[in-house]
Amino acid sequence: MNNTGTATLLQTIVEILNNNTNETLMQLELNSLAAYCSDGMEHDSEKFLAAILIHAINRKFNPELLNNNIYDKQYEVSQIELFDILIDKFPFVKYGQQMVNNSIIETMSHYDEVTLVDIGIGLGTQMVNIISMASGLSNLKKVTIVGIEPFEDALNIAEANIKAIKNTAHFEIEIVKIADYAENVNFNSIPKLQGAVIVNASLALHHIQQKAQRLVTLQRIKAINPVAFFITEPNVDHFEPDYKQRINNCYHHFIALFKVIDNLDIERKYKNGLKLFFGREIEDILGKAETDRFEKHEPAIEWIKMLTQSCFEIDEMQFKHVSLNETGLNIVMQPDGFIGFKYDTENILAIIKAI
Asked: What is the CATH number of the domain that holds 322?
């Protein structure tokens, strides 16, 4: 590969796809570009991202020609270490959940009984934090937590984590577990939907594969009349059917995210470990058949349109303006009604509150 400026790497990838009808030749050219990117990629986000994109494209078109160097052990960091960094250092998780949690607590302060429906509860970390924060709400008598999570092992851990702090709360806590995907849940049939219902969906709804399923799911949520519904989603179109346009969308979204990672006050190995962590998402976005994809992100405005169609109203969250100069990231209320986590011109993450 001749000297290729990193600024033109996306253009070079697209040109290779445009100029080759022979898939074998196309992959050889992509692998040549990947070899170029591998030189110094640990210190160059654009090379790092281009290498991940090429790996995903190869997986889609001709997996037997895959070059697996991008996932060499030199870039691996343990999942436990990465999750700790995501929670403690990564501004999207740290400040996104902080804003949502503060708004949930403010909503809970008006009721003596609340049901929290958490779609994609995972290990229950966010619900545990909300319970701890709710200790200052003297009005609260009971909280029912409905955890919706397709992976039963995670759901059981979430239940154990919530039970571990149950005795520290001055209010009664009840847990309802639903081991299923959100699109399969009849929300009206959930037992013990008592008091004011608050629904939280953090980085979960984009896993619903079909647009029609998303709309039906939102309508089912509306049927239980939540007093507040919080959605946190990446603000990018990976639902895009045109493959080359999806590559373009993917590149611009993740290069902004990678540059935020570059500005974090952590060791280089952890920065690269985080990039590989998100590389698994890119593999899904670009490397899988359409029927097998689950990382089908949509822009916030599309979620807002579906919420409006489902008879929700958008409620602009009240939040303290946060300017993260150390990361180059700004958090700004957008005119369309969502909170945008913005790096340069790219809104990377969106938080929406509906009522």
From this structure: 3.40.50.150
Pair 16, 143 in one domain: no
244 belongs to a structural domain: no
User: Which pTM value belongs to this model?
Assistant: 0.90
Strands lying side by side in the sheet with 172-178: 172-178, 142-148, 113-119, 196-202, 228-234, 346-354, 339-343, 329-333, 323-324
Together in a domain, 63 and 208: no
Q: Inform me whether the pLDDT recorded for 227 exceeds 50.
A: yes
CA distance 296 to 277: 17
The verdict on residue 255 lying in a domain is no
Number of domains composing the chain: 2
Same domain, 139 and 226: yes
Q: Is residue 253 part of a domain?
A: no
The answer to whether residue 248 sits within a structural domain is no
Residues spanned by the domain of 217 = 85-235+297-354
Beta bridge partners of 146: 117, 176
pLDDT at 1: 45
Q: Is the pLDDT of residue 3 over 50?
A: no
> What does the block give as tokens for 42?
């640990």
